[in-house]
Amino acid sequence: MSRQALAAELQTAADSYQRAHVIQHCAVCANPCCRLDRLVLELNWKQVKVFWQLDESRAAFDRRLASGKGPEEIRAADGLYFAHRKVCPAYDETQQSCRVYDQPIKPVGCSDFPVYADGDCLTADLRCEAVDIDTLSAWVVDALGPETRVVQSADRDFPFLVSLSVKRRGAKPQARARRA
Ligand code: SF4
Ligand code: SF4
Predict the structure, then answer these.
(1) Which residue from 42, 36, 54, 52 is spatially nearest to 89, judged by alpha carbons?
(2) Which domains does the chain have, with CATH numbers?
(3) Cα-Cα-Cα-Cα dihedral of 169, 170, 173, 174, to 10°?
(4) For the chain, which terminal residue's Cβ has fewer other Cβ atoms within 10 angstroms, N or C?
């Protein structure tokens, strides 16, 4: 199997795991990631403008932010914005749900969290209480077949990030039938 095909299958496995084990748990999560008390939300200007309901220009907002008069939970860097330590404005605390869940404005990182696929590797963020790393490993083997080997390793600096490195042995060539 090519690396590309393996990456595509891993992405599919990650998506189906999220649907089966994570998304349905969000409504009853004891510590929702959307409160941003542990996670940092990466945003582009359009997302900031919509979520914080701004009617000023980007330049005016940037000046306000730089002068310390902007939303204290937002930092700007490298053309992007990072929100932390206050509940995401798109989060509905009562329903425990995202108000922009199915909309293109939703940040990409929100859809990926807590399982990220990258090439032949999946990374799970165990700060999400719905993720169980052994269940995820078994899910990958189930999805990719019994010849799949999964090796777990925790990040040295951020041990809540656990990588699953996936290898798949090629199928053995079938023995040719002997001619009589
Ligand atoms: S931490 Fe996990 S279960 Fe909780 S709201 Fe976020 S994605 Fe859902
Ligand atoms: S955009 Fe939605 S999913 Fe993302 S942090 Fe805000 S409420 Fe949560």
Answers:
(1) 52
(2) 1-26+113-169 (3.90.1150), 40-106 (no CATH)
(3) 80
(4) C
Write the pLDDT tens digit of every residue in 31-80. Answer: 999 999 999 999 999 999 999 999 999 999 999 999 999 999 999 999 99
CA of 102 to the centre of ligand 2 (A): 11
pLDDT band for position 2 (cuts 50, 70, 90): confident
Task: Report CA(114)–ligand 1 centroid distance (Å).
Answer: 8
Residue 89 CA: nearest ligand 2 atom is: 6
Ligand 2 near 128 CB (within 6 A): no
Cα→Cα distances 162→46, 51, 71, 132, 157, Å? 32, 31, 33, 11, 11
